[in-house]
Structure formats: C-alpha cells, structure tokens
C-alpha cells in the first residue's frame, strides 16, 4: 500500500472504521473514500457495484458490520447472519469485479469454535462447533474471510483478513441491551455513580475469561498488515492478556470511581467460557499492542464522559 493509493474504508462511522481513518490520516494517507449508510447501502449489491465502478479505489478496508453483545446476538442470530453475509459478500465480491487489487476484511475471534484450544490459533477455524449465542455472526464472518482466501488463491488478488479480539475505545456503542460487555459495564457503572445507585446488575456468573484490545491498537495492526507485501490469509490480533468478567467489572468500577455493589444475575448466559486468541503469528511479523487495559479503560471512561456531556454518545 502506497501513500498515493485511494483507500475505501467501509463502516467509517463505527468504532473500528473511525479508528482506521484516524490511523490512516496520522500516517499520511490522504486519499481516503468513505460513504455513510444513507449514501451507500452495503446490503445492496447493485449499489456497491456502482460505487466501486465510480470511485475505483486501489485498496478497500471492510470494517462495516452489524454488531452487538451477547443479548442482541442470541436473540437475533437470523438478522446477524443475513445482514453480515450480504455486507461481506457485496463489499468483497464487487471490489474484485471492479478491479480492486487489495482488500482487508475485518472479522472477529468469535469465528472460532466454542471449545477451541486456548490460546486460539488461526488453525482452529472450522474444527468443531461454534458458540450458539453468536453463531449467525460467526458464520457470516467465516464466509467473508473464506471468500477473500478463495479470491486470492483463484484470482491472484491480495485479499486477506484480520480477526480482532473484543474491542473497546472511542466511538463504541453504549447500548445497554445490545452492546458489548465492556461498554455496557462502563455505562452501568457511570449511571450508578451519577444517580447514587446502591447496586449495579451484571449478566452471568462473572467467571468467563475474556481478552480486550483498544481499538487504536487494532487500527495500527490494520495498517501494519496493509503495508506488508505478502501477509498471511488470516491473522489474529489481540492483547494477549485475559481477565475474568468479574475482574473486568472490578477494573471498570475502579476506573469510574463508582461505589455501588455489583450484583450478578446467574440466570443470564455467560457465552463462551474462555476466548484468548493466539497472537504469535502477528507478533512474529513485527506487530505488538501498545495500550494496556488499565490505561485504555481510564481513557475510555473520560471519552465516555465527554461524549455524554456533548451529546455525541452512541446509545
């Protein structure tokens, strides 16, 4: 990828896409093309074909997706499968048909089996059943990364994929019902602190282990991979550090300064018991994260408070 390349970032208003755009600007990539959902519906193959034909980008970074936490996924596997399949197929296949030579597809480590070996290597893909609560999303992302792999092998285009672990940071969605675990916790603890609530209810037992990566670290990994001449088809990206959900709750409570007591609702699902990705491949290529969880949480809480204050919060 060269500084003169025209780069299309799909999903630029989301947490990941906006981080990628910031990273590109910081490194001097000035020719970046974006479209809002109103301007371009990624579910519409005809619209995608027309967009690629008009803009002719050299590089495409596909960050767009319908995303949500365990509650939203488990209640809407059909929608998560359908919409994300269409987004991936249209964004990737129409890029190929338009002559886009390089494409990076963003997925998630939820593509791996529920009981995959830990840490999870890229080779664990499709070796056993998926986690049922997010199976629809996982199947869609697997389809996207496989399409990239097949096009690279069959047609000679440099299409490859990056599978990030759980993300957090600026631009996250703080929806209590449909959001991911960490932003949901931040909102719950901050709300309890502001309102003076005595308790904060959290889902599950608190025992599952999770890994978290700041979205700015992911954006740096995206640019790192795009600047490699011959990247692997599929690469995990994560922090390499895991915490229990119970430990995470304690860290968020401390970061917000909330004195409320945590109440765990064990009637709610835990999801996958453990999900730590093996990042030895990307580290062997020369990339490593720079933002640790405590620093990232402190920054994210301050960004959340600022977004609440100026009305830009995503709920």
Helix/strand layout:
Elements: E1 7-10, H1 15-26, E2 32-33, H2 45-55, E3 59-62, H3 70-75, H4 77-97, E4 102-106, H5 135-155, E5 158-164, E6 166-168, H6 181-195, E7 199-203, E8 209-214, H7 215-226, E9 234-237, E10 242-244, H8 245-256, E11 261-265, E12 274-275, H9 280-285, H10 293-310
Parallel strand pairs: 1-2, 1-3, 3-4, 4-5, 5-9, 6-8, 7-11, 8-12
Antiparallel strand pairs: 8-10
Helix pairs in contact: 1-7, 2-4, 4-5, 6-8, 8-10
Descriptive notes:
The chain has 315 residues and is an alpha/beta fold. The protein has a domain at 7-172 and 212-241 and 275-291: NAD(P)-binding Rossmann-like Domain (Rossmann fold, 3-Layer(aba) Sandwich), CATH 3.40.50. 43% of the residues lie in helices and 16% in strands. Strands 2-1-3-4-5-9 form a six-stranded parallel beta sheet, with helices on both faces. Strands 6, 8, 10 and 12 form a four-stranded mixed beta sheet that branches. The longest helix has 21 residues, at 77-97.
Question: Would you summarize the structure shown here?
Answer:
The protein is an alpha/beta fold and 315 residues long.
Q: What would you call the structural class?
A: alpha/beta
The amount of helix comes to 40-55%
Low-confidence stretches: none
Query: How many helix segments?
Result: 10
| Strand arrangement across the biggest beta sheet | 2-1-3-4-5-9
